[in-house]
Amino acid sequence: MLAEIGFGVLVFTFFLTLYTLGAALYGEWKRLDAVVESARQAMLLTWPLLTLSALTLIYLLVNNSYQVSFVYEVTSRSMPAYLKATALWGGQAGSLVFWAWLMSAFTSLVALRKWERDRELLPWVLVVAAVTLAFFLSLIVFFENPFLRYWQTAEGDIIRAVFQPARTLPFIPSDGRGLNPLLRHPGMIIHPPMLYLGFVSFVIPYAFAMAALITNRSDDRWIHLTRRWTLWAWLFLSLGLVLGGRWAYDVLGWGGYWAWDPVEIAAFMPWLTGTAFLHSVMIQEKRGMFKQWNMILIILTYALVIFGTFLTRSGVLSSVHAFAQSAIGPMFFGFIALTFFSSVGLLIYRWESLKADVEIKSLFSRESLFLFNNLLFMSVLVVCFWGVLFPLLSELFTNQKVTVGPPFYERATAPLFAALMFLMGAAPLSTWGSASARTIGRALWKPAVAAALVTVVLFFTYSRNGIALIGFFLIALVLFVTLYEFWRAVRARRKAHRENIFSAFWNLFGRNRRRYGGYVVHISMMLMAIGILGIELFQKETQGTLALHQSLVLDGYRLEYRDIARFPAPDSREVTRAVVNVYQGERYLGQLYPRIDYYPEAKQNMTIPGQRPTLRDDLYVLLVDWEPASASGATFKVYVNPLVNWLWLGSLLFFVGILIAAWPERERRTES
Amino acid sequence: MRPKFIIGGFLILAAVIYLIVSSTQASAEYFMTVDEVHAEGENAIGKTLRVSGAVIGDTIQYNPQTLTLTFEVAHVTGDNSEIEAQGGLAEVLHQAVTDPTRSRLKVIYNGVKPDLLTNEAQAIMTGRLEADGVFYAEELLLKCPTRYEEAVPEQAG
B15–A415: do the CB atoms touch at under 8 Å? Predict the structure, then answer.
């Protein structure tokens, strides 16, 4: 009964979305306000409807309704209720429902607020959002229906259908297959929704951009309206990436967080164009330049968002993220091609009216540095795109499948990231309009000397690795420049407003949220860079099989195997937990408990590391194997990951920075 | 000022092309089946290869003291549609292991023995073929196709 309701609501919502699309187009064409208004009302209705459908599915998931095939595939009786509910995005069909639900929520939010003020653009925003929503709903309704149930025919075959086919009986499996144990982790519960929030919120700026093109508004109105949407989208996408990394670090047990897996890259690519977009819209707002370029960036971001959803969900590339093969691949390609080429066509049609207000003058001006920043982000994108496409191309043309692994991406992107860091240091000190190498050099030399001093100290005290030293120099440069910018602004405020240092600092953020929030993000990126350099360049590892009371030694740490115990956990896991004493020299530091969780229903082990995080490094111990009744004892793998915790600290600061930048600004008319 | 920007753009473009081409050459991994490795012979030595094969359970030897793992894999096709046509991955792996005429490849891996290394598992190994005809794997991925495959539940018994 419930499954039919859930499915019926989805079908109805699909037609309602088509109505929104048709009515908005027709109403705008014939200038019929009432018809456009009805399109808006229809769109507002999609959100409660999709909420109902999603809740129905969640109800089925939580209540062990294994006659529904989606429920059978992603849950099992032994899973706790919160995991059953969040299994909504643990499989393909459910995650598409979740995507559609977010899309309708965001579109409704846009259509509810300030309709009158933005009456000119909003009908077209509805059109673009309705096209996207209709596409996802059609995938769910026609290809990936989460409400299919099992039926048994007279011959004994099991088939899947929503409504009972003739001469069949309902078939109810006694238990489900359960969520892949790897996905049963807090990080995995919030990682996919964060990523999806980021993906879907980028549709809104795209929709406004298309609306601006259609209505031929060449000003920055659409950018102004979607500035905060873009920041939130970027925040969610970034958090999604970081959480995915943290999950990999905690769960996959190879001592890393990022493997340049095609699916990771698929989520990274819209982040790259989105980051470039965030920067270059500022130039359009301040200088009236880059109008065509911003359109290109947002069109690319939208295409990459859909492409990213497609890659994560289609199984076209093999990876830890890929679900089973599915029929929706060609649909996705068709949709991406359709939206991409029609957007580009529209952009070409309006090309002339998007000419810049002023010409770019100097190679060292701030707008020029932003342009180079954009080109570098695009270059990283091209590298990533090549890495993903290369296996497909080589197979097509040479019949020999060749792939490129992480070394390709590391080698090809490292110089580009270094150049981006240099720009991050130089750009805040540059000036708009005309500037010369000399003016920027005069501003940059002091922080450069300070950064060089830091590098020399690190050379004698920490490492003589050339790549690391270049990296640390750039990090120090950016940190000095950014802190100097803060200090300069605080000093100016203290003089002008007679404020003490703390309130001056606080008011700074209030005065120009985006700039100083952005600087906080820059600092957080540098902290993350410290962590990335540390683990990439200085990771140490060892492994060994130990009898009780034997020790392993790595990088000044000594790990002594003390004990092992095996016990059942409440959710039917079998836990094997080792006790390891950690010493540094003779000093006792504490105990670590690496363990193996065995999931009988999935017949799968999950290896949970014991971690000892400090700012210097992260001691990361895995219990990989143990033999109950032999003298050989237990096998451990140990990593020392230097500086990696700066990566996680940086991501917290990153969150703060975006909150500062995206926090609603009080509408003030006093300053102009 | 325009020429400067055009030159700057070209410099970036040239740098990116150089980075892509040189990095591709430096880190390309060639996908091969066991048959293809044998057919390439001398040519395959030294390149980074990615070889997939069916693990033959009887050949697995593991020394936990030295962490040396040796086993043999049997040839399986790399073509997905062919695998489907022959009745799915599990069936293809089973045939490969039980067919004594299939070509085989000896593999040596240094490290912890993976849980999933069992008879009729699919091993995907990245490493190099040396002149002694042994494949030295640096990375070892395993797939057990029986686990998550069935889309339709087994009938209640």
Answer: yes
Whole-number Å distance between alpha carbons of A171 and A149: 8
Nearest CB to A158 within list B20, B27, B152: B152
Write down the pLDDT at residue A313.
Answer: 61
Q: What are phi and psi of A90, to 5 degrees?
A: -85, -10
Structural domain contains residue A451: no
- Domains present along chain B, CATH in parentheses: 29-143 (2.40.50.140)
Q: Which of A440, A477, A439, A434 is nearest to A455 (CA)?
A: A477
Burial class for B80, CB neighbours closer than 10 Å (0-12, 13-18, 19+): exposed
Please answer yes or no on whether A375 and B12 come within 8 Å at the CB atom: yes
The pLDDT of A417-439, averaged and rounded, is 89
Domain enclosing residue A149, as ranges: 1-178
Q: How far is B58 from chain A (nearest CA, A)?
A: 20
**Which of A178, A208, A240 represents a domain boundary (last residue)?**
A178
Residue A107, in any domain of the structure: yes
Secondary element (H or E) of residue A466: helix A466-497
Buried b (16+ CB within 10 A) or exposed e, B48-66: bbbbbbbbbeeebeeebee
The answer to whether residue A19 sits within a structural domain is yes
Average pLDDT score over residue span A389-412: 84
Give me the residue label for tokens 């794997």.
B137
The most confident of A254-258, A376-380, B119-123, by mean pLDDT: A376-380
Confidence class for position A631, pLDDT limits 50, 70, 90: low
- As for how many domains chain A has, the answer is 2
Residue A34 located in a structural domain:
yes
How far does the CA of residue A389 sit from the closest CA of chain B (Å)?
Answer: 12
Whole-model pTM?
0.89
Chain B residues in contact with A433 by the CB 8 A cut-off are none
Nearest CB to B112; choose among A160, A543, A602: A543
Rounded Cα distance between A496 and A76, Å, is 65
Task: Return the residue matching tokens 């040189």.
Answer: B22
d(CA A204, CA A407): 36
How many helices and strands, by DSSP H and E, does chain A display? Answer: 19, 14
| Residues A153-207: tens digit of each pLDDT | 888 888 888 888 888 888 989 888 887 777 777 777 888 889 999 999 999 999 9
Cβ contact A362–B112 (<8 Å): no
Tell me if chain A has a CB within 8 Å of the CB of B15.
Answer: yes
Domain boundary among A156, A178, A200: A178
Rounded distance, CA A404 to CA A407, Å?
A: 8
Residue A251 DSSP class: I
- Amino acid identity of residue A593, one-letter, is Y
| Whole-number average pLDDT of chain A | 88
Residue of chain B nearest A379, judged by CA positions = B16
Lowest-confidence segment of A200-204, A210-214, A466-470, A541-545 by average pLDDT: A541-545
Q: CB atoms < 10 A from the CB of A64, how many?
A: 20
In three-state secondary structure terms, A157 is coil
A379, A301 Cβ separation under 8 angstroms:
no
Q: Which residue has the tokens 């040519």?
A: B43
Contact yes or no for A238/A286 (Cβ under 8 A): no
* Diameter of chain B measured on Cα atoms: 80
